[in-house]
Design a protein that fits this description.
This protein is of the alpha+beta class. Among the domains are: 128 residues, no CATH class; 160 residues, no CATH class. It is 48% helix and 11% strand.
């Protein structure tokens, strides 16, 4: 950010906390949604686990609110840090960001509530330069984990299943909150694009889904849009056509650029900063976008929701985990695609567990379709293990014995349970509450 005199100030979240704590802000404030905001008490700066500020008191559009506040450099920091999946942040009433880069005017909590956002970028006072400080310190890493001590493989399966069920319910709640500003087709569309972006580029992929919404793609398809034209719009309109990858055929990229120049559906582009450092060529967002485009385009004759529901609509005598899992894979597998544009089975598994299954559960619950909900839950509880991520690998290496590690390799629900354990306790180094939760889970067995 450039301030008076040409000085370049690089913000970090601790500096933003200082800004909020000292109230180095202009007087006339508004939330991102346009509501007038008056800060009565900025709260207590929390240096422990949980939200950055406790017990703030604000008046929003004439109504008084008291609760917590969380500070991030940008709006997507809420999701990037996992707060949308963390009940410890359900009492947050205001999301404080330097720059708003979300696709809605609100932030969603784990319990499905939406909270107001204040963007500080254009509301900083002239005394900002006084707040520049250096910070030191490193996170405390515990060397002993009492949670896994003394738990045999069978008990661990039961415990992780319980935690895995809770994590799936949180995913459902998250999508329920997003549905407030969307519909099921758009929800699936932006969900699968997000899953294709990995952590570095997932927000950019969501931005593509919202800048070129599913309803527009469906309308353009009815007007004659070809697969290549849709791919050109998504790739060239997002700027990915300017980021080469070694596995991309130069002629195909040229075809996309030429097609984009000739198509008449849209000429608007979205300005995105892609994070491509140290990304494997096959994981490049350009490649992922093309891989997912086949499934998206094939759905436009009916809808994403319709083709997804069709996977679960099989005769009772054929309604097995294996049958439905195979059909879920077929949704994404495109025979006409050539390498590297055939999406891998493991990436499909990740999309199914994190996006498709929770959205189907949400749909079934909203429509009152008990059989469909039970089927989706059954698929989840029996779904095979996903590739281990960095959190799982770290916890296994540090704290779990060989038998416990083998358990994680059996089912996705066990891995999801481990992730919930980490997000609820490990990331806050709250071993005391973790052990207490262990006792509760064992007593319920």
């Amino acid at each position: 950010m450039k301030v008076e005199g040409g000085f370049i100030l690089e913000f970090n979240e601790k500096l933003l906390c200082h800004i909020w704590d000292a109230q180095h802000l202009t007087k006339d404030l508004n939330t991102v949604s346009g509501k007038p905001l008056r800060i009565i008490y900025p709260g207590r700066w929390n240096t422990d686990r949980g939200p950055d500020f406790r017990d703030i008191v604000v008046e929003i559009d004439g109504t008084l609110f008291r609760g917590d506040a969380e500070v991030h450099l940008d709006t997507y920091g809420w999701k990037a840090h996992g707060h949308d999946d963390d009940f410890h942040y359900n009492n947050v009433i205001l999301h404080i960001v330097y720059e708003h880069n979300g696709y809605t005017d609100y932030t969603f909590t784990e319990d499905g509530s939406h909270i107001e956002i204040i963007e500080l970028k254009h509301s900083l006072d002239d005394d900002l330069s006084k707040l520049i400080k250096k910070y030191e310190g490193s996170p405390f890493i515990p060397q002993l984990c009492h949670f896994f001590a003394g738990i045999d493989a069978n008990s661990l399966q039961a415990i992780l299943s319980k935690l895995g069920n809770d994590r799936m319910k949180r995913k459902v709640n998250r999508f329920a909150a997003e549905l407030y500003f969307s519909d099921f087709n758009q929800l699936i569309y932006q969900g699968i694009l997000e899953a294709g972006g990995y952590s570095k580029n997932s927000h950019n992929m969501i931005q593509i889904a919202n800048f070129y919404p599913y309803a527009d793609l469906k309308r353009w398809k009815a007007e004659g849009m070809t697969l290549l034209e849709m791919q050109a719009i998504l790739v060239c309109g997002s700027g990915l056509s300017e980021h080469l990858t070694s596995v991309m055929d130069d002629n195909f990229l040229l075809d996309l650029k030429n097609c984009y120049a000739l198509q008449n559906f849209t000429s608007t582009k979205i300005d995105l900063e892609w994070q491509l450092f140290r990304i494997r060529p096959t994981n490049h967002p350009l490649i992922r976008l093309i891989q997912l485009s086949y499934m998206i385009y094939n759905s436009l004759e009916t809808s994403l929701l319709a083709i997804t529901l069709n996977v679960f609509s099989v005769p009772i005598n054929e309604r097995t985990v294996k049958t439905i899992s195979v059909n879920l894979h077929k949704l994404f597998y495109e025979k006409t695609a050539v390498k590297p544009f055939r999406i891998g089975i493991t990436r499909i598994d990740i999309i199914n567990v994190n996006i498709i299954i929770p959205i189907i559960i949400l749909y079934a619950e909203k429509m009152g379709y008990e059989t469909l909900a039970n089927t989706a839950w059954d698929i989840y509880r029996e779904y095979r293990a996903l590739p281990p991520n960095a959190i799982e690998s770290m916890l296994k290496k540090k704290y779990m014995n060989e038998s416990q590690q083998s358990t994680l390799g059996e089912k996705a629900i066990y891995q999801q349970g481990l992730l919930k354990l980490y997000k609820d306790f490990c990331q806050y180094h709250n071993c005391e509450l973790c052990v207490e939760r262990k006792r509760e889970l064992i007593s319920e067995m």
